[in-house]
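Hey,
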Amino acid sequence: QVRVVESGGGLVQPGGSLRLSCIASGSITTIYTMAWYRQAPGNQRELVAQISNGGRLTYGDSVKDRFTISSDNGRYYLQMDTLKPEDTAVYYCYVEANGWCGKTKCDSEAWGQGTQVTVST
C-alpha cells in the first residue's frame, strides 16, 4: 500500500511563491501517476498538475505558466509562482502506484492529508 505526505503550505502575499513537497512511501515498484489537487471552501476538488509514468505533464488551465510540477529522487514538488488570492485552497498530493501487497503485486492509490495555502495581504 502506498502512503503520501505533503508539506510546504503557508501564507504568502499575492505575487509571491511557495513550493509544496510530497513523498510517497510503501512497497512501491512503479508510480503510475502523481498529481496535485486543490479544494477551496465551497468548491469541488480540482486538478492542479499531474505527472504520469513516462513524464507526461498536465496542468489545470488556471495555473498554466505559473505552477510547475517536478520530481526528484522519489519526491514530488509543486512550484507555485505569481500566486493569486484565488489560489487559496487546501492542496492535496495524490499517487497511484503498483507495489507489493503481501506476496502479490497490486495497484493502490493514496491521498495526503492536505496542506493549506493562503494567498492574502
